[in-house]
Amino acid sequence: MSAKYCKNCGTEVTGNYCSHCGQRTTVDQVTFKEAFHDFYSALFSIDGPFVNTLKLLFVNPGKLFRDFLYGKRKKYYKPISFFILTTVVFVLIRTLFNSDPMAGMAKVDLNSEELNTLSYKAGKFMSNNINNILFVFVFTCAMFLKLFFYKKYRFIEFLVVSFYLLSFYTIITTVSIPILKTIDFQYRALPLMLMSIYVAYAMSSFIKGTKIKIIGKAILAYFLALIFYMVLGYGLSFLIVWIKNN
Fold first, then answer.
1. Fewer CB within 10 Å of terminal CB in the chain, N or C?
2. Which domain does 221 fall in, by range?
3. What is the β-pairing status of strands 4-5 and 12-13?
4. How many domains, the chain?
5. What 8-state DSSP symbol labels residue 183?
């Protein structure tokens, strides 16, 4: 019997999976069945990376962060990929429900002349491109977590944590979209407030030490990161709108 070789890395194989790279040895031409099976397995398998990540993100985020940082990478969805996936779902649901965070402000606070100002257009731009500008929030969150817990982990490790934290934010924001369309504009910040509670919970399960102290630092880091995100995100949006208008 002739030897079989992995089509991905060229290693000689004897079973159903390559011992070197893990790819199936039955891989041949790409088919719809294979593509759907891989997609379904990655997202909905009970022991799949997506389900494992989503479950721990809610019930024990500290374990998720530690496991990933300490080497258990294959078991979980990669932080950047997970963040992008949840953000894409957020954008799709937001488009489906035609949700616009600026709409309530336009009705309550702005007249027709003010709608044409650069400041309003910048806010509108930030709202419409929130899926891209949220990356700024990831970096400000990592920056302030590093500032308040500088002895615990490196900046790149807090960046990983921040991608997971902001993935949770996009999830709760996505779920709240139908509800937010039916309530007053003044309550639109509710997901941000819920997020502050979650950050405190997540960091207290992740960082070892006095719980009260960790929770206090986590909440302060979160709100400072939020303020800097709003300033930087709006400033970037204003600059882009200004350039387009000149």
1. N
2. 53-244
3. antiparallel
4. 1
5. S
